[in-house]
Amino acid sequence: MSKPFRLWYRVEHSGASRSATASGRGTGQCDTKTVMTRRQAGKSGGGKAPTRGSSGRSYRGDAGLTRQPKKMRGRKPSSQRWLTRQLNDPFVAEAKSRGFRSRAALKLEQMDDRYKLLKPGMAIVDLGCAPGGWLQIAADRCKLGSSGAKLVGIDLLETDVLDGVEIFVGDMTEPEMLDRVRTAVGGRAHGVMSDLAAATTGHRPTDHLRTTALLEAALDFALEVLIEDGFFIAKCFRGGAERSVLEILQANFATVRHVKPAASRQESVESYVLATGFHGRGGWTSQGANEDEGAAPPPEGGFSPI
What we know:
The chain has 306 residues and is α/β, with parallel strands linked by helices. It folds into two domains: 68-97, no CATH class; 102-292, Vaccinia Virus protein VP39 (Rossmann fold, 3-Layer(aba) Sandwich). The chain contains ten helices and seven strands. It has a seven-stranded mixed β-sheet, sandwiched between helices. Strand 4, helix 8 and strand 5 (226-237) form a beta-alpha-beta unit. The longest helix is centred in the C-terminal third of the chain and has 22 residues, at 204-225.
């Protein structure tokens, strides 16, 4: 490098260094004008990430990406989707923060807030009670332990003990098990709840039929134990309960409706059928069966799908 070139290089670069230092650049700092420009660009809305995920409920972070579980390697795609959905579901977080055993507790809470089903002193049966989220809500709202209320649950799976609740492990479709539940609740109940769902096969028509069979078994038990003006609530899949089941419900309850609480994912096929004002005059016979036999049809119910 020649002497004149070296002199020019030193002069040019020393000047650039002084300029950068004076403006705050090159020292890890940034001038006020630059900061304000960046803030204004952020508030302009250009390129802003959506606040919801593909499920319609998932929150997204500042980077615009749904939160992902840390360990995904070796998991099936369906498991990965389930974990991601759980991690980003605000109702899962709320249930955990409030000490509920499952997010299903929020579903019953929301339905009860709207329809005022659970009252102090009631006798309630929960079919398919594991892990116990619905039992927690019912125990709190029926004032279990201080008002003569009774709460009985049954499930194929083990359910952790809950103070004052009698829980059975067994198949609710077996008459012997239902006899034990009936005895435990005192023979009569103000409400029968069922969050039962058959293990899914991936074939939706089959899954629908299997869950409908559980719904019919739960309804059969409810017709036997409910007192006057009692209620029945049970899970069903998209499309609602079968017409024959709805006709039986209409014949035995004052009002029948389909309900989907906010805590039930929008993309989920589940919903609930809620029947209130039990009178039991219709029995276990649908309107169609009565007409075939020449009998008078049962009184009309108040079916109002939601």
